[in-house]
Structure formats: C-alpha cells, structure tokens
Amino acid sequence: YYFSQKKLDERCQKESYLKLIEKVQRLVMDEDLFEIQTSKDIEIVLMKKRELNNCVYMLKKYARKFALDDDIKFIEEKTQEYTDFFGNHQQDIEYLKKSSNDLSRPLLLIDSRLSEIMIKLFE
Fold this sequence. Notes:
Layout: H1 2-28, H2 39-61, H3 69-89, H4 93-97, H5 100-121
Helix pairs in contact: 1-2, 1-5, 2-3, 3-5
C-alpha cells in the first residue's frame, strides 16, 4: 500500500508540475508579450512578465525533484534575456513596435524547451 500510494503521490506532483509548464507555455506564446503597439500594451507586458517570473520561480523551486535543473536554468536565462531586452527599450514604443522578432525569440526557445521537459517528466 505504501509504495502504491507513494507512486500515486508522485504522479499527482508531476501532473501539477505539468499544469504549471502548460501555463508558462500559454504565457510565452501570448502575442501580448511580443506584439507591442501602444503604451497600454506595455502595461499588459509588465503584468504578464510578473506572472511569467512567478511561474518560472515555481518551476525552479521543484526542478531538482524532477531532475530538471539544467532545463529550468535555461528557461530562467531566456526569461531574463526577454526581461532585459524589454526593460532596455520599455520607454521607446516605436522601437518595440519593430522588435517583435527580438521579443519573440527567447519566448519561442522557452516554449521549445518546455515541450522537451513535458516529455522528460514522464520518462
């Protein structure tokens, strides 16, 4: 009984982690993060960026348990890359309008790595 319950608990934890990964994927694929046209869009990015950082923090917190330290470190680095680029140009709306490729690149890399993690999680 103990071992079957332990396996069930572990499975539930993996499923919760998987839901968090899916949430991060939805966030990074949200066009609001890389299609910036107005100052209102900047406010939306700031709000979603905070949510993304919180989710990445949670992923990092439990990464060791699932042997995903390197993967989550990569995601953390790409999140920081996005944050730095956006932060450096936050006041220049005209530049951000033309920078959707630069903004989306780290987000696409995060999405790809998250897909990899989803497969690793249930190996």
